[in-house]
Amino acid sequence: MIKVGHVVVAGELGGAEHMLRDLVRDSPALAHVVCVLSPIEALPRFFADAGIRVRDGGRVREDPFSATVRAFGSSAVKWLESTLREERVSVVHLHTFGSQVIGTRAARRLRLPVVRTEHSTRVYDDPFCWPFSRYSLLRAAAVVAIS
């Protein structure tokens, strides 16, 4: 069975998180695990309360500097790589800007395909996001735009 490792690095319960919860609940033919890094405890609980398998990487800061450190650092990538390996995922599905670089780096280390779902235009509108988004886009097997 195909197992999808969804990666979410976010500080809120917004549209992406609600769409992901519905996607997992509505696709029982696949196995799923949601890997979360967030400053709020409510985010991993949001998925767990819906009966979704969650791996919580702990609390992280959500600001441009912290996102940059995570992108170039190794601790978040190592945690995610280890988690994806332990969960035996087949594909890595990235859902938030914060997940793009660490998710892509972890997936590449494990030689897993990456799927990106674009939930907003931020990655195209904000020049700060461009190098990170481009890095991930060039390495994605597929990109989905929800609107």
Distance between the termini: 29 Å
Q: What class would the helix/strand composition place it in? A: alpha/beta
Shape: globular
Average pLDDT, to the nearest integer? 91
Describe the structure.
The protein has 147 residues and is of the alpha/beta class. Helix content is 45%, strand content 20%. Strands 3-2-1-4-5-6 form a six-stranded parallel β-sheet, with helices on both faces. The longest helix has 14 residues, at 97-110.
Summary of the model, kept short:
This protein has 147 residues and is of the alpha/beta class.
Helix/strand layout:
Elements: E1 3-9, H1 15-25, E2 31-37, H2 42-48, E3 54-56, H3 64-72, H4 75-87, E4 91-94, H5 97-110, E5 114-118, H6 122-125, H7 130-137, E6 142-145
Parallel strand pairs: 1-2, 1-4, 2-3, 4-5, 5-6
Structure characteristics:
147 residues, alpha/beta, six-stranded parallel beta sheet, 20% strand
